[in-house]
Amino acid sequence: MKTIHEKLGLETKSEGITLIDAHHHLWNLDLHHYPWLKNYDPNTFLGDYRSLIRNYLLEDYAKDSAGHRILATVHCEADHDYNHEVSETRWVHEQAERTGFPNAVVAHVWFHHDNCEEILTQHKQFPLLRGIRSKPVTASCSEQAETVKGAAGSMQDEKWLTGFALLEKYQLSWDLRVPFWHLEEAAQVARAFPNTRIVLNHMGFPWDRSEQGLALWRKGMKALAACPNVYVKISELGLRDQPWTVEGNRGVVLETVEMFGIARCMFASNFPVAGLQISYHDLVNNISEILSGFSQQQRDAFFWQNAQSFYRIDLS
């Protein structure tokens, strides 16, 4: 299979790391509406993200990832206008037909909405659909986590659980995205649906690197790691207004790999969002440095084989 750079006629370096990117985004602001990009909010965990308010197409991704051998990519829904969520899936498939990438798609559905199954069946018309990312209702901080339990759209909401159960019926995985103070609740869902494969996005956002914050993060991660149907993406390790450093992130990465095992961990860039703090080249190389103690076989599993298997990517 040709790499993304070969497909697009761009130079690629043979010494770069071979990988499948298990999580990135694309958007065309001329054609589609992304509320978070239309209405800039400086108070998000991203900090100043105004540089993202531009079109980001496959050609842009290919330029960012130059220097590495990208065998395949997984497009994850990018908070598109949820009144027209299927149009994002359609557009991403048009990009795949044009360029050969991405090679798997994670779309959006609201599990607790009455039209959940209707939207799922519309997404299922597209052949690269592999999973769903539907963000449950969460609290803004750990101290308020209990206040949203049982609320509409939360992971205890019966309507939400009924919609979630459809993933097994349609043979789709769930991309789990919650802050670390909700990880134990997510583990309860994972145990209740052992036949549904789940992948945690962004390592549960270990934003609080204090001893107390890491203890709470670690407790939730261990609960999820105890569920054999849960995998994890090593991604989005940036901290607001702080530089991305190897030493700053080595501990949480190695702890995550130890808890889940390398066979359930996968590389994911979260570009272009992660580009707010680090280049693609440095991101890959920094993660590679952190994992330097692992064998080549284990590194191959982490950088591309696990994602290929989880998202059922055809590399022929």
UniProtKB/TrEMBL annotation:
PANTHER family: AMIDOHYDROLASE, BLL3371 PROTEIN
A GO molecular-function annotation: hydrolase activity
InterPro entries noted in UniProt: Amidohydro-rel, Metal_Hydrolase, Metallo-dep_Lactonases
Source organism per UniProt: Limnobaculum zhutongyuii
Xref: Pfam families: Amidohydro_2
Family according to the record: Belongs to the metallo-dependent hydrolases superfamily.
UniProt keyword annotations, A-Z: Hydrolase
Domain Amidohydrolase-related: 20-313
Name of this chain's protein: Amidohydrolase
